[in-house]
Amino acid sequence: MFPFLALISLSYAAIVYGQQAGTLTTETHPKLTVQKCSGSNSCTTENHSIVLDSNWRWLHSTSGSNNCYTGNTWDTSLCPDPATCAQNCALDGADYSGTYGITTSGNALTLKFVTNGPYSTNIGSRVYLMDTADSKYQLFNLKNQEFTFDVDMSQLPCGLNGALYFVEMDADGGTSRFSTNKAGAKYGTGYCDTQCPHDIKFINGEANVANWTASPSDPNAGTGQYGSCCNEMDIWEANSQGAAVTPHVCSVQGQTRCSGTQCGDGDQRYDGICDKDGCDFNSWRMGDQTFLGPGKTVDTTKKFTVVTQFYTSNNSTSGTLSEIRRLYVQNGKVIANSKTKISGLSAYDSITDEFCNAQKTAFGDTNSFEKLGGLNVMGQSFDKGMVLVMSVWDDHEAQMLWLDSNYPTNGSASTPGVSRGPCATTSGQPTDLEKNSPGATVIFSNIKYGPIGSTYAH
């Protein structure tokens, strides 16, 4: 994901985070089926579940129900320092549908943007796929494989992001590495990505209370001294007006806590341990404004299938990741990916190191993707195993303009790489979206994975 800040804005303390496991609300993971394929028309159904990220959960004292975090502020008596806070505070179970607008039915997951519960208003959500034993996160290695899902994002306007992606989290949520993390995957702990987000309340089993600063635009979010970094493969970041597929890589393996220059914050964006820009393929940004959107070749007013294929150098799971290909299926028709139409750029239709280097040169962008190892490092991350994430969010930092509008906003739309979608540069304000589009939803369904060519009819 590109600029990542707070994803949440609750009007009371249901949006809090911790490392102990609470007992006031029973945690029951909603069920979700996934298909594992071995060949064309040969798939078996796996019974999985999803778990809500710890960032959205109620955090209270282990001895009662006093909030450890309210609004933008930590309770200084319960959380005077990182270690004491981890001892004093417990995450609790979630009411998935009533509080968070998260529902499942068979192979379909629905994420609602705004949910008005009896005591709170919840904004957005982020969930992870659990393994079939419902004990850890499911790990995926997609080298020489493909990953397929259906998406309905017809109800996602400019400024929202219905995202499906992989990150290199610990399968157990961090419990084996950090003894003070008692909650683990069952309660959605251990998140990381290439933006090295500082809004994570607990990192490495400790509260991120040091130098905590309240967000000026989100009354329930803030940032701490540390960030949580790891490799990230963005399969799908999209709304009804645009979409991008983007690998991001880091110089570290696995979830890593950063501080200072390591995090790549602000003016140090290209000095950190992760590639925050990534190597994106966004059809509109690559010069084809007729390919994806309402009534276009891929019609976003209706459900469609997204297929992503991960080719290796020797066409085996042991090879080096060398190419990421994308295709779509809608109304029974297989649709090839769009081709780049940028002056001076060859007609690429997939992500390779060659494409990434040429794109960075054509757009005048800093090539941190190549600097940090490119597709080879992305493949190494899959070797380790990556966790499936699905979310819906608004963007307090950059209003999602990097996905669906002109970005940076002081650039000319005629400059290659600046125009990324048809949305106005005034769109995407979270307060406007929360007021005017509370019913916005994304539905991910029919998830399949297996050898290339095995997950869709062709």
Automatic annotation (TrEMBL):
Q: A Gene Ontology biological process annotation?
A: cellulose catabolic process
Provide the reaction this enzyme catalyses.
Hydrolysis of (1->4)-beta-D-glucosidic linkages in cellulose and cellotetraose, releasing cellobiose from the non-reducing ends of the chains
Q: What is this protein called?
A: Glucanase
| Ribonucleoprotein is among the record's keywords | no
* GO MF annotations, alphabetized: cellulose 1,4-beta-cellobiosidase activity
Family statement: Belongs to the glycosyl hydrolase 7 (cellulase C) family.
SUPFAM superfamilies hit by this protein: Concanavalin A-like lectins/glucanases
InterPro entries (UniProt xref): ConA-like_dom_sf, Glyco_hydro_7, Glyco_hydro_7_sf
Superkingdom of the source? Eukaryota
EC number annotated for this UniProt entry: 3.2.1.-
Q: Which UniProt keywords apply?
A: Carbohydrate metabolism, Cellulose degradation, Glycosidase, Hydrolase, Polysaccharide degradation, Signal
